[in-house]
Write a structure and sequence with these properties.
- The chain is an alpha/beta fold.
- It contains 17 helices and 17 strands.
- It folds into 3 domains: 57 residues; 123 residues, Aspartate Aminotransferase, domain 1; 215 residues, Type I PLP-dependent aspartate aminotransferase-like (Major domain) (Aspartate Aminotransferase, domain 2), CATH 3.40.640.
- Strand 6 and strand 7 form a beta hairpin.
Length: 438
């Protein structure tokens, strides 16, 4: 009997096929060769027919030379840390394309002389927060806080409430972060209660500033007390407010979430926020405040180690000056519209797939608005669908990250762009075929 392995094509023949050769030019030889070798091994193992080798390679080629894969966020968490936090707007993505080549990030094209780095991005931030005397950008919120400590309390101490000595994720803690740059922490109050007098009594000639940290990823309820920025600003030292999640102004759906404008109006000398959370842009540490204080940070030698690249500056500017980013769009979605979209998806996937529409409670996520439930709608599927949705066999089918709750897979639509609904339908149909084979 003829051995079918005799008909398995040679590696060099497969690499010479026009679509494979074109992919190597686009993605690089190594990536394509590794994929070809893997597919040919599956052919030798009897999993594929020799005639299907090239078609399988083409189907499994990634769209870009990166291990990262685009994911549709159906978790119901709008700012999902494990999915990269805020997705960028089309305007921000276009701005990155412009910045990817040679650009005037640090050049005045009119004079031909060196210019202030990322000036147009800083100008856009200052226009968005008119009460700020100045703005500066570093690579994340933790960097902004350490820069403030190095510039404003290099040999002194920072006064901080015990109830705000938070862990910010991945085991990193605010006090340890500050102490790592040589600053001493003066703890005041208790876990649940702190008073104005606690701050006042802790201040001495070595105090650089009072730090107010928003407990953005947890809530403390019951017998509690805290001192707002508006009262702390009456002390004899500057107040630095780390608001975390990045709102520039108040949001009607998140009335208790702090924002940059209010904190500055309340007397904060400096306000720190994140760019990739409720601001809706790329990862960055946003610094707003009194002009002299911001300039002190900007000119500090440590600022050089924390500066952002041109891609971040371009995306940041487009996020604040351009159309509404996806995070803001998600927060504004109406639950009735979400339910209608879910009903359309359920209808489109067909009668043989056990899908139905359910109510859902979404969340802001990413260290923002803890304890706030957002009304939403979801497509419910059997629990077995979760894995198949995450790992489709072809790059033509999107990966969908849902969540499993009470033995069912929920694809919450609050963070899903309506233009992606058809892709969700395609992913459900593909997952149904996959689960039927297991």
């Amino acid at each position: 009997m003829d051995d079918p392995r005799r008909w398995i094509p040679r590696t060099d023949h497969v690499l010479a096929e026009p679509p494979v050769r074109a992919a190597a030019a686009r993605l690089g030889d190594r990536l394509v060769k590794d994929l070809v070798r893997g597919v040919l091994q599956r052919c030798r193992d009897g999993e594929l027919k020799p005639d299907d080798v090239v078609a399988t390679i083409v189907a499994e080629l990634p769209p870009a030379a990166t291990g990262m894969r685009a994911v549709i966020n159906g978790t119901g968490v709008i700012v999902h840390t494990n999915l990269g936090r805020a997705p960028l707007s089309p305007a921000a993505r276009s701005a990155i394309d412009v910045a990817a080549g040679a650009t005037n990030v640090e050049l005045d094209l009119t004079s031909g002389r060196r210019a202030k780095r990322g000036q147009s991005a800083v100008d856009a931030l200052e226009r968005a927060v008119p009460v700020a005397g100045g703005a500066h950008v570093v690579n994340n919120g933790a960097a902004a806080l350490t820069l403030a400590a190095r510039a404003m309390a290099p040999e002194g101490n920072i006064v901080l409430s015990r109830g705000e000595m938070v862990e910010i994720g991945d085991g990193f803690r605010i006090p340890e972060l500050l102490e790592s740059v040589g600053t001493r922490i003066r703890e005041v109050g208790t876990t649940n209660r702190v008073r104005f007098d606690d701050y006042r009594d802790a201040i001495d000639e070595n105090t650089g500033f009072v730090l107010k940290v928003h407990t953005s990823n947890f809530t403390v309820r019951g017998f509690t007390a805290e001192v707002p920025v508006s009262q702390l600003s009456g002390l004899d030292v500057p107040v630095v407010a780390d608001i975390g999640s990045g709102l520039l102004t108040r949001h009607p759906r998140l009335p208790h979430e702090p924002d940059v404008t209010t904190a500055l109006n309340d007397g904060a000398a400096l306000v720190i926020a994140s760019g990739d959370k409720l601001f809706g842009g790329p990862q960055a540490g946003l610094i707003f405040g009194r002009q002299a204080v911001v300039e002190r940070l900007r000119r500090h030698p440590f600022a050089r180690a924390l500066r952002v690249d041109k891609l971040t500056l371009a995306a940041l500017e487009a996020s604040v000056a351009g159309p509404q980013p996806p995070v803001a769009a998600a927060l504004s979605r109406d639950v009735a519209a979400l339910r209608a979209r879910a009903e359309h998806i359920v209808s489109a996937v067909g009668a043989h797939i056990p899908a139905r529409v359910v109510e859902s409670n979404a969340a802001v996520g990413g260290g923002g608005a803890p304890g706030v439930d957002l009304d939403s709608a979801a497509v419910a599927l059997p629990a077995a669908f979760a894995g198949a949705l995450r790992t489709p066999g072809s790059h033509a089918i999107p990966a969908v990250m849902a969540h499993v709750e009470r033995d069912r897979t929920l694809i919450d639509l609050i963070a899903v762009d309506p233009e992606d609904d058809q892709r969700v339908i395609d992913a459900i149909i593909a997952a149904a075929a996959e689960t039927s084979h297991t």
